[in-house]
Amino acid sequence: MKHICKAAAVVLAALSIASCNNNKFTVEGQIAGAKDSVLYFENVGLEGINVLDSVKLNDNGDFSFSQDATTAPEFYRLRIADQIINVSIDSTETVQVKGQYPGMASNYTISGSENCEKIRELALKQIDLQAKAIALQSNTELGIAKANDSIQSMINAYKEEVKRNYIYKEPYKAYAYFALFQAIGNYLIFNPRANKEDIKAFAAVATSWDTYYPHAERGQNLHNIAIEGMKNQRIVAAQNADIQIEASKVQEAGVLDIALLDNKGNMRHLTDLKGQVVLLDFHVFALKDSPARIIQLRELYNKYHAQGLEIFQVSLDSDEHFWKQQTAALPWISVRDEDGAGSQRLTLYNIQAVPDFFVIDRGNNLVKRAAQIADLEAEIKKLL
């Protein structure tokens, strides 16, 4: 689990790579339209982000950063606010970047490194994929099932293209490593915890890195991820079998069941709420905005519960004791998924980030998800 967390940390940080001897490498260029903005040059390590240098940009947006090269590929990024350009260094090279701010994450050119050029291609493809997925989720004319099917089809096609043209083509390259950790929202596109084919991709890159960079920590981390993924396959297969069994009931129930223990130790089933309008809510109480959101939900519950509204809230908090404390006084159904961010239920409901919610009608049919709802109270009133 430790190494999987390291992998997730690399994704949430939006990867970059580099390789060196004991000499210097340089990343230089111009970011237009960013006068007086601070440009940061950061290392994205397995343990997190480290700021290496920064500069306040002049009228031309000129910058130049130099650092000691390492003996194996390493990841870096250029950042202004939340705009990021991923950079790969695999020698004592000079990489030149020209970008336009705002929007430099997609509006830039890069030269001096094949790896950096390939990483730019991958970053643009990922941005496009995410935009299309959001558009589908937000399309109120599509049903949830149809939208989810379309999104999954896009992701599957994306994975096949990336495996063919970036991962298996040259698995020893820095950009192949980068491709493994792309994500939509906070979720890995290639998930070695849940997908046998994804484990093969991780293993292929790990094997190549063993040959080209035999003592690299990142290569060893890839091996650990692949090995843990293989160990988990029996568990994952069992979970998937359970999901398939429940999926066979969808036509009858209209919604995939969620069966979890509540904060009082009772088994609760989502499908038992047929006859009520249900707000299915995926939540993390440890998040900063949780208290304000709970107040909003309580207002809705107090106003409409007597008319048939129920809230089925699924917590993804890792600390069970903390969760029980936070839910002790809540009047609705509070359950907890101990698998947290790794839960198969998130995949099942295509949850890309939390909080997220769904509205279910009295017939146990999923009606809409959060992205498709402009006014939650109005939607609930309509179903009641």
From TrEMBL:
Annotated ranges, domain Alkyl hydroperoxide reductase subunit C/ Thiol specific antioxidant: 257-366
PROSITE patterns linked: PROKAR_LIPOPROTEIN
Signal recorded as keyword: yes
Signal peptide (residue range): 1-21
Classification via InterPro entries: AhpC/TSA, DUF4369, Thioredoxin-like_sf
Keyword annotations: Signal
Highest taxon above the source species: Bacteria
Pfam families: AhpC-TSA, DUF4369
Domain DUF4369: 25-116
Gene3D superfamilies referenced in this protein's UniProt entry, alphabetically: Glutaredoxin
CDD domains in the cross-refs: TlpA_like_family (cd02966)
Protein name per Swiss-Prot or TrEMBL: Peroxiredoxin
Biological classification of the source: Bacteria, Pseudomonadati, Bacteroidota, Bacteroidia, Bacteroidales
